[in-house]
Design goal:
4 helices, 26% strand
Length: 201
């Protein structure tokens, strides 16, 4: 049976020229499983832009460091992945986005930033993405999308993997830490050991 999907579009903001990323707003499209009356996805739900300060805050909260592999789910123009390797020394960055135009833009931005050999941008449904090698995962989705994604994160990510979400929590999964960055709320979780009480039921 063919899976039906709903597409959410997230519009994110300007990014520092030092990172070599376009200063135009980015539209991040996130494909979410659910019912829809149409047969073709239509990215038509805009969201508030994310400033570079919030990007830096997310990566700092995750404690990104050399050796980390950073995944951004709904990666748009690639600013988080690019910043992770360029400014924080991550070993590798991977972005996943459903919109082919954003993938093209992200690859161009990575080339301009001089980090093309350290990043990869994959077009596809974030729910189908292989994220098992991530040591850090970043999110800027919606509460309902975070809730749908939570079982995948807990099942596929290694214990100790850090997850950071901009603005939205994950329901009954209490964050390890919550901070304010430029007036925006950022949440951090650490994937617990299997079978422990650290994860929601």
């Amino acid at each position: 049976m063919k899976r039906q999907m709903m597409v959410l579009a997230l519009t994110m903001g300007t990014v520092a020229g030092a990172a070599g990323v376009s200063t135009a707003q980015q539209k991040v499209t996130v494909q979410v499983r659910g019912s829809t009356s149409g047969t073709a996805p239509s990215p038509d739900v805009p969201y508030v832009p994310t400033p570079e300060e919030a990007v830096d805050g997310m990566l700092a909260l995750a404690g990104v460091k050399p050796g980390d592999t950073v995944y951004d789910l709904g990666s748009g123009d690639g600013r988080i992945v690019i910043s992770a390797v360029q400014k924080h020394g991550a070993k590798r960055g991977v972005g996943v986005d459903i919109n082919p135009e954003r993938i093209t833009e992200a690859n161009q931005n990575a080339s301009q930033a001089g980090v093309k050999n350290k990043v990869e941008f994959r077009q596809g449904d974030l729910f189908d993405a292989n994220i098992s090698d991530a040591s850090v995962v970043t999110l800027y989705l919606l509460p309902s999308v975070n809730e749908r994604l939570k079982p995948k994160l807990l099942k596929e990510l290694k214990p100790g993997t850090r997850i950071v979400s901009h603005s939205f929590d994950m329901g009954d999964w209490e964050p390890t830490k919550t901070v304010q960055s430029g007036g925006r709320t950022l949440y951090l979780w650490v994937v617990p050991e299997r079978g422990t009480g650290g994860a929601p039921k």
